[in-house]
Design a protein that fits this description.
about 550 residues, two-stranded antiparallel ribbon, 18 helices, flat
Length: about 550
């Protein structure tokens, strides 16, 4: 982020000094004299300066013209370019102004005394500036070329989660339908790898829970399992103790019948998850909860509460608008509080307090980068002094003695006080105008009705889904392991799963594709729930909630 020089020079004194430097440099550049012919014996240790001297000897008038153009362009660029907003801002600004003062002195020396030594000093500064700009451009080019390596080295010491988020940003993958055949195969292969990992993770979690509840034996107590001597003997007989390594593939193959696990336990677990976590939840929504109610609540994030429509689903744009308006309301509230404060009143809650009595209030538009503002009593003292001074000046210029001096002074004081009296009115008007955007009862009722209509429509959709699932289950007499004899066959392929794949909005919703395509096999409870486009689980999809078994 770069800050223009005009914003840094908020002080009128600083601004006038910098403008004076700019005018002096421009004046000395335009009045640069034609250089005298220099002797060929004059040499300089620097090769670039010798080249400049050779150009000067060949055609002094043309060299002066080109030099003036270059200096004027460089001068405009230096005064137009901003300063980087970092901790070195003061040092950078000082060095740039120091170079400007040195160049002005060199130009003035050449203007007053058109001698070779003065021209050498000017050429040294010119060549030094050219080399500096060239090095900066080379550095920028290399920085752009090696940006990935620079960022990797810069982010090496970041915390773990921050480093992972920086290293692998969340990029939305391409739509499956827009991929070519080879890319589709790669997408399918990578998705199946994730599905196998998800399937194994869910199975391990269930078996670990079953071990803790003594539903299945502890593998390390079985005679045909290799003993892990890192496990304490006392822990082997504690069912609630989570044994490390008890769900490793090598241990499970020795302890359990994997054909039974794959053929009985996994389909049973899939059925229970779909029934307990999704079907019963849908029945509870339809039969007990009903449509969600949209209410108006008060947002108390800022100093002043704002009524908002409490929408069950996230409305990012509306929430962002409310958050920004809350920030501005807080800024206006703090500004008004500082303005109306007393001399000894504590204002630490409004912002940082400085020794001169000013307070840094963000978004107040005050003085400097800290946005400092002063209380009303500070300006009252200044206004009173200005009014007295103006009254004395008027009396000094008028020798006639008037009897209404008091009225004249009060008139002058009132003219000075008028802007101060208008300020709280303007602040209050802005505050009320911003708050009224969210406090209009008619607008709130209209938004509440619209969102309630959406919730009712969503509830009707859930009712249709539950009716469709119930009809399919009754028609095909679905129960646990009924897919073995179910005549209704699966027709959904991997391509259809990948075409409809979406990023999950909540961690409780499963995502991914099943490990087995199951084309031509009997449908399960998850398949009938999937037909109604409702959340369901199949081995291969993610499942993070606790088991409700």
């Amino acid at each position: 982020m770069y800050i223009p020089v005009s914003e840094l020079l908020l002080s009128p004194t600083h601004r006038s000094l910098v403008l004076a430097l700019y005018k002096s440099l421009l004046r000395n550049i335009r009045h640069l004299p034609v250089p005298h012919q220099t002797s060929n014996q004059i040499e300089h240790p620097h090769r670039e300066i010798n080249r400049e001297l050779q150009k000067l000897r060949n055609d002094p008038a043309s060299y002066r013209k080109l030099l003036k153009t270059e200096l004027e362009y460089s001068l405009q660029e230096e005064f137009r370019t901003g300063v980087p907003h970092n901790q070195f801002i003061g040092d950078i600004l000082y060095k740039r102004l120091k170079r400007g003062v040195d160049l002005d002195e060199a130009l003035l020396a050449v203007k007053e005394s058109n001698e070779v030594k003065n021209w050498l000093v000017l050429l040294e500064k010119l060549v030094h500036y050219r080399l500096k700009r060239f090095r900066d451009q080379v550095w920028r080019g290399q920085n752009v070329e090696k940006m990935s390596k620079i960022n990797e080295r810069r982010n090496h010491n970041k915390s773990g989660l921050r480093h992972v988020s920086i290293k692998g940003p969340n990029k939305r993958p391409k739509n499956y339908n827009k991929l070519n055949p080879n890319e589709k195969l790669d997408r399918l292969a990578s998705t199946l790898d994730e599905s196998r990992a998800n399937s194994w993770m869910v199975l391990c979690r269930f078996l670990k829970l079953s071990q803790q509840q003594s539903l299945i034996p502890n593998p390390f107590l079985l005679p045909n399992v290799t003993r892990d001597y890192n496990v304490k003997t006392d822990d082997l007989f504690s069912p609630s103790q989570i044994l490390p390594g008890s769900t490793k593939m090598s241990i499970m193959k020795q302890a359990y019948d994997m054909e039974y696990v794959n053929g009985i336990i996994k389909p049973s677990l899939e059925y229970d998850i779909n029934k307990r976590h999704y079907l019963e939840k849908l029945q509870q929504i339809v039969n007990e909860k009903g449509p969600q109610l949209v209410r108006v609540r008060m947002n108390t994030a800022g100093e002043v509460a704002i009524p908002i429509v409490n929408i069950p689903t996230n409305n990012t744009d509306k929430l962002r608008e409310i958050a920004l308006d809350t920030k501005w309301l807080v800024a206006l509230y703090n500004t008004e509080r500082v303005w109306n404060s007393l001399r000894n009143e504590s204002l630490s809650k409004c912002g940082q307090i400085f020794l001169d009595g000013s307070v840094a209030v963000k978004r107040s538009g005050g003085f400097g980068l800290d946005e400092r503002i002063f209380p009303r009593w500070y300006y009252d003292d200044l206004v009173e002094g200005e009014a007295i001074w103006e009254f004395i000046i008027n009396k000094a210029g008028n020798d006639r003695v008037k009897s209404n001096d008091q009225k004249e002074y009060e008139s002058i004081l009132q003219s000075w006080m008028e802007p101060l009296d208008i300020t709280p009115i303007v602040l209050k008007s802005k505050f009320n105008q911003l708050r009224s955007r969210h406090s209009d009862r008619k607008t709130l009722n209209q938004a509440q009705e619209e969102n309630q209509h959406k919730q009712n429509s969503h509830y009707d959709l859930q009712v249709r889904r539950l009716n469709g699932i119930t009809d399919s289950l009754e028609k095909n007499r679905v129960f646990k392991h009924s897919e073995i004899v179910n005549p209704d066959k699966v027709t959904k392929t991997y391509n259809e799963y990948l075409e409809k794949a979406k990023t999950p909005t909540k961690k409780t919703f499963p995502s991914g594709i099943p490990v087995l395509e199951r084309i031509g096999m009997g449908k399960t409870l998850g398949d009938y729930i999937d037909e109604q486009d409702y959340h369901n689980f199949k081995f291969g999809k993610t499942f993070k909630p606790r088991f409700k078994l």
